[in-house]
TrEMBL record:
Official protein name in the record: Class I SAM-dependent methyltransferase
Transmembrane portions of the chain: 310-333
Keyword Electron transport: no
Gene3D superfamilies in alphabetical order: Vaccinia Virus protein VP39
Source species of the chain: Streptomyces platensis
GO terms of molecular function: methyltransferase activity
Length: 353
């Protein structure tokens, strides 16, 4: 397996190096002077950071609107930038890692909690999961809703893998806003779990959900909470910043207002259960990724030498007990964290009127 991965990395390196030789400027749109949510010019710099998970080159800035609190990437990734930074993250070289994470006990617990959140609002016949990845949520949600037919939509090839593995009955690959016209009034439920923050125009995604839903259908959204106290305490190391993939981090009041504007009625809000108990662990991993020698990756100009590889291995072995302790603390503190402003995510359920 190691040799196969090394061969894949070597095969990918020429393309990445050719792209990087042309510089990073084309990966970004022009910097904005106003908030993309409310158009206010009262902006402040929230943080500057790097691509911690993949270690692809580049610096990324998040600005915050002093008027409405919206946090957004500025300058934002261009179409070329989105292609470059998403490539080999959820599919390709990153597919196996993401599949392991999606099938972990913690992820399964989160999936089932999300599916149970709909139980007070009926039993849907057809459910579209937008940003479904490989469809792992749908496979677990079927245990809670056994009579529901689950469909998935995403940009990457993972949605097709979800069909092949029997996790979803039908796959749509592409833009939700672009495909919504084909899906008019077909669904009882549309879910967007940690999807909206990745999109170029969140309001267009809400409009697409309104189109795809039947009257009385429900939209389920979970997103990172930029108002979380953990975001302030952990700064640039807070995992849910996830740069450069998270383009918009939306305060709860802003999202509820936008849903009302689009013709929804908010019927449930939850800032407790959606909390993902990994803040300390993910912050520590981000620090390690920043300070340790890099692993062999095709966007690095060359394969690390033997000294760098051994330093990385030994450092990871030394850090493993501390990471386990931090993960244990995340889990043990979760019941308390969920009841405070340290909770790192929120859920909104809205009915299409």
């Amino acid at each position: 397996m190691t040799n196969k991965r090394s061969e894949q990395i070597a095969a990918h390196r020429p393309r990445y190096q050719d792209e990087l030789a042309h510089g990073l400027d084309r990966f970004f749109d022009p910097e904005r002077a106003t908030c993309p949510w409310c158009t206010s010019a009262r902006l402040r710099r929230r943080l500057r950071t790097t691509n911690h998970p993949q270690r692809k080159p580049g610096n990324f800035v998040l600005d915050q609107c002093r008027n409405c609190g919206h946090v957004f990437q500025n300058p934002r990734l261009s179409a070329d930038g989105l292609d470059f930074y998403y490539r080999d993250c959820y599919d390709g070289l990153g597919e196996a890692t993401m599949a392991r994470m999606a099938a972990s006990p913690l992820a399964v617990k989160l999936y089932r909690a999300r599916a149970r959140a709909l139980l007070p609002f009926g039993r849907p016949a057809r459910w579209l999961d937008v940003g479904t990845g490989h469809g792992h949520f749908c496979a677990e949600a079927r245990r809670i809703h056994p009579r529901t037919e689950f469909h998935g939509l995403d940009w990457g090839e993972g949605v097709e893998i979800g069909v092949r593995n029997g996790r979803i009955a039908r796959a749509y690959r592409g833009s939700f806003a672009g495909l919504a016209g084909q899906l008019t009034s077909q669904y009882d439920v549309v879910s967007m779990y940690h999807y909206l923050e990745h999109t170029l125009a969140p309001r267009q995604e809400l409009a697409a959900a309104h189109t795809a839903l039947r009257r009385g259908g429900h939209l389920l959204i979970e997103v990172p909470d930029p108002q979380s106290a953990a975001a302030r305490l952990l700064g640039r190391w807070w995992g849910p910043w996830l740069q450069p993939q998270h383009l918009h981090l939306i305060p709860l009041d802003n999202l509820c207002g936008a849903l009302t504007e689009q013709g929804f009625t908010v019927v449930a809000i939850d800032r407790r259960e959606p909390h993902i108990p990994t803040d300390l662990t993910s912050a520590a991993v981000n620090v390690l990724n920043c300070v340790l020698p890099g692993e062999d990756l095709p966007w690095l100009p060359r394969k690390p030498g033997p000294v760098s590889r051994w330093v990385r291995r030994l450092a990871l072995l030394a850090a493993a007990p501390a990471l386990l302790v931090l993960f244990g603390m995340d889990i043990l503190l979760a019941p308390l964290t969920r009841r405070t402003r340290l909770s790192n995510a929120y859920r909104v359920i809205a009915r299409r009127d």
